[in-house]
Amino acid sequence: MAEQIRVVTLNCWGLKYVSKDRHERVAAIASALARSDYDIIALQEIWVEADYSEIRDRVVPRLPYTKLFHSGALGAGLGILTKWPIIATSMTPYSLVGEPTDAFGGDWFVGKGVGSVTIKHPVLGPVQLFVTHFCANGGESGPEYNRTYRLVNAWEFAKVTRQAAEMGRYVIAMGDFNSIPTSLPMNVVLNHAGLIDSWATSHAHIPPPSGMLSPIEGVLNYGITADSPLNSYRDSEPSGDPIVRKYQGKRLDYILFRHPSPNGSNDHLPRLTCRDSQVVFTDSIPGNSCSYSDHFGVEATLVIDTQAEGKQDDLTSLKDTSAVWFNSPSELSSNAITEMMSAFNTSYRMSQDRSRKELIIFGTSILALIGLIIGSAWVVVPWLNPVFVLLVIYLSWQATTKLYEGFIFGNWERKALQNVIEELELYKQVLASQAPHDW
Questions:
Q1: What is the DSSP annotation of 113-135?
Q2: Which residues, at least 6 apart from 81, have a Cβ–Cβ distance to it below 8 Å?
């Protein structure tokens, strides 16, 4: 006997006042999902609650159980809609999500984290669904410390998904990880959490590209979901990123899954495998020339085999994504952990240097304010008064911002980094003792 679970994930690019054609695109997304046969839908960047309500109202006749995750000042932008009853929910914010002065990046102002619902599946029992959206800053080139926040996201995401499997639950994880398959963050996600990449398992027969790809080949064969020339919202200027040039975009969106951890009593649980995975929402919305989002979506069909025998965490079934892209398998080895710790230690030192500079600016701004206050008593030219007022406002803002970022945020950032570094040191000791299963 075999059953299946149809899953889709889509970054909706639903930033209020910023995202182009948002109302038209959300309506088209809602209509497309209402006509679909998905059992589980995961959404990211659904920042406006009215947009989520529009999608939910169209889909709820088929998928009556829904959850919008609330976190941060502007919300998490994450939602899950499912066919099966939700018996528990949680929202775990990431400890590091960006800098407060990075207004254009925006990660600081939203509740970046991992949302989770536990559903009661008629065959599998409790299944924990995860949806996430990693920090965007960092790119794919340069030293790893540029991607510190994303690495912290990956480590914390891997921990919560692994914990769910150790509690005896099946895990399905979806979202925009802002990381290509060969990156260190995806190495951490796949190997520490033991997650299986649905796209990699269903496209393992496709070799790495040997020449220039067409945009369609990039989507069909290599799962490109972002920066594709086929997307109407892609920057018209040619990208200088070698990954984008080689693959005609990037694969940043994933559907991952795994079985419960073995405990001696679940040797004959149903086996969950991926039969098919493909990129979706690649066409323009009906009656318009714009795409559904600045990302394409990903769907996967997971098959439940209740006649499977043997332990269900057979790691030989796990196809590492890097083997698909560069034919060079990666593991969360001692070297990978050392690379992470090096990035975090470098970021720690950079945070200290930045805090010192910002506190110097704070002190300088205070001295300048005192000078302005004293100097204003001798101002005899009336038109200079507004100039003094503007300078006082600017210096007050500068002093307050630098005090917060240099002292409060700086200490918070370093304590979060220190916690992760200490966890990795413990984990490395476990690896050195050759007992990773005890971690």
A1: EEEEEEEEETTTEEEEEEEEE--
A2: 33, 40, 41, 43, 55, 56, 59, 60, 63, 65, 66, 67
**DSSP label at 213?**
P
- How far CA 176 is from CA of 307, 379, 394, 402, in Å, comes to 33, 57, 38, 32
Q: Which residue has the higher pLDDT, 402 or 429?
A: 402
350 Cβ neighbours under 8 A, 6+ residues apart = 145
- How wide is the angle at C-alpha 320 spanned by C-alphas 127 and 307, nearest 5°? 45
Cβ–Cβ contacts within 10 Å for residue 159, how many? 16
Is residue 409 predicted with pLDDT exceeding 60?
A: yes
Evaluate if residue 256 carries a pLDDT over 70: yes
- Dihedral sign, CA of 88, 152, 96, 105? negative
Round to the nearest angstrom and report the end-to-end CA distance of the chain.
35
Question: Could you give the CA distance from residue 317 to residue 309 in angstroms, rounded to a whole number?
Answer: 14
Structure tokens at 341: 């710790």
Tokens, residue 353: 């240097």
Contacts of 377 (CB under 8 A, 6+ apart): none
More confident site: 296 or 339: 296
Considering only CA atoms, which of 177, 114, 194, 107 is closest in space to residue 140?
177
Residues in contact with 388: Cβ distance below 8 Å, sequence separation at least 6, in sequence order = 372, 375, 376, 379
pLDDT at 327: 35
For residues 119 and 100, what is the distance between their CA atoms, to the nearest angstrom?
Answer: 36
26-68: pLDDT as tens digits:
999 999 999 999 999 999 999 999 999 999 999 999 999 999 9
Beta bridge mates, 276: 301
Distance CA 213, CA 230 (A): 13
pLDDT at site 98: 80
Measured distance CA(92)–CA(174) in Å, rounded = 15
Q: Which tens digits make up the pLDDT trace of 160-200?
A: 999 999 999 999 999 999 999 999 999 999 999 999 999 99
Quote the CATH superfamily of domain 2-330: Endonuclease/exonuclease/phosphatase (3.60.10.10)
Those residues whose C-beta lies under 8 Å from the C-beta of residue 83, and which sit 6 or more positions away, are 39, 40, 62, 63, 64, 65
pLDDT computed for residue 109 by the predictor? 80
Q: Which two tokens stand for residue 210?
A: 């040997």
> What local confidence, expressed as pLDDT, does residue 117 receive?
98
Instruction: Parse the chain into domains and list their residue ranges.
Output: 2-330, 336-438
Identify whether the C-beta of residue 358 lies closer than 8 Å to the C-beta of residue 100. Answer: no
Q: Which residues pair with 174 in a beta bridge?
A: 131, 255
